[in-house]
Design the sequence.
């Protein structure tokens, strides 16, 4: 009887980190479905979320350091400039700072650095992230570096588990321009799902990469050091490892170009010779002719008009647009209609 009381004495402070797992293993089942669907028919594709195994997440961090890949740097500049005004959201009552697809914690640090340290205890940081390693490491670093901050990590997929988000007052962020990975219809679906979990006082900060001169766009996805090429090819290594495949990355080359009609960058893996591979866990033979491609990513680029149409359809209204000087990237602050 005396033990529970004792335990409580030791716990002078409430634990500041909790992690909840909403994936519990069904990621593999989903990969099986996605890979079978994407690789069976005539026109082949793989969803870009399979770039982000452990190596892929590192390669993406490296892409952000290349001189050609401007979005991360430009977005950081905007974040720094507007951090204090964005974080004015906090300060009166306990609220959550939700980050969808948090990855590394560089962006949230920029936001937290703009907050009076005495107010940190009003904030609970809620990263929602599919990669367990990224989530744990980043959460531990944050509670170490920001005294008073609480963290609730959600191991989850933001296309399926938004109902895992806490119901209280919150500021949601979805940065980096990753909304561009989704077709317009999918984006409206995702934005609607975000609107669904928002209350009238909640706010949503969304990062958008904007339409700009084609040479700038194409260079950003064809860096001279070949990091984006390795990132693109790594999706094959991920499939090989997870699904027992023997695809040979050297059968493929990296292809990235701007599709002007769709206003999107497209990334493909293009067969440079006849491909004959096998993915055992799918019981699938992959045959491709030289020149045929596996479409691995779209990265849509927006205008204020094209984005506003999707906000409208999703039941969201823009309250302000935060941009860099050249208008290359935007952070939009949205509220529920
Ligand atoms: C992380 C989805 C925003 O689309 O620019 C970078 C991913 N792909 N280089 C993007 C990516 C190739 C990136 N997002």
Sequence:
């Amino acid at each position: 009887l005396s033990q529970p009381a004792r335990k409580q004495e030791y716990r002078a402070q409430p634990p500041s980190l909790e992690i909840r797992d909403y994936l519990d293993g069904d990621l593999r089942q989903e990969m099986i479905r996605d890979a079978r669907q994407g690789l069976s028919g005539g026109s082949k594709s793989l969803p870009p979320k399979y770039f982000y195994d452990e190596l892929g997440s590192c390669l993406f961090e490296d892409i952000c350091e290349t001189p050609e890949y401007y979005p991360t740097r430009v977005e950081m500049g905007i974040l720094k400039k507007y951090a204090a005004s964005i974080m004015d959201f906090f300060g009166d009552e306990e609220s959550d700072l939700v980050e969808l697809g948090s990855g590394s914690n560089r962006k949230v640090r920029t936001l937290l650095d703009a907050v009076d340290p005495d107010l940190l205890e009003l904030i609970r940081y809620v990263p929602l992230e599919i990669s367990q390693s990224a989530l744990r490491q980043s959460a531990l670093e944050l509670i170490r570096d920001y005294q008073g901050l609480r963290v609730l990590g959600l191991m989850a997929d933001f296309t399926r588990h938004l109902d895992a988000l806490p119901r209280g007052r919150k500021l949601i962020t979805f940065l980096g321009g990753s909304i561009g990975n989704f077709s317009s219809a999918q984006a409206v679906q995702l934005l609607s799902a975000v609107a669904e979990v928002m209350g009238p006082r909640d706010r949503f900060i969304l990062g958008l990469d904007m339409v700009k001169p084609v040479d700038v766009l194409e260079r950003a996805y064809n860096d001279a050091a070949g990091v984006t090429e390795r990132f693109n090819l790594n999706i094959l290594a991920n499939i090989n490892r997870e699904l027992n495949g023997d695809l040979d990355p050297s059968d493929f080359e990296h292809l990235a170009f701007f599709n002007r009609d769709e206003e999107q960058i497209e990334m493909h893996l293009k067969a440079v010779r006849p491909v004959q591979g096998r993915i055992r866990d799918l019981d699938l033979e992959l045959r491709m002719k030289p020149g045929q491609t596996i479409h691995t990513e779209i990265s849509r680029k927006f205008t204020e008009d094209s984005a506003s149409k999707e906000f409208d359809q999703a039941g969201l209204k823009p309250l302000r647009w935060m941009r860099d000087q050249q208008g290359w990237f935007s952070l939009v602050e949205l509220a529920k209609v």
Summary: The two ends are 53 Å apart (CA to CA).
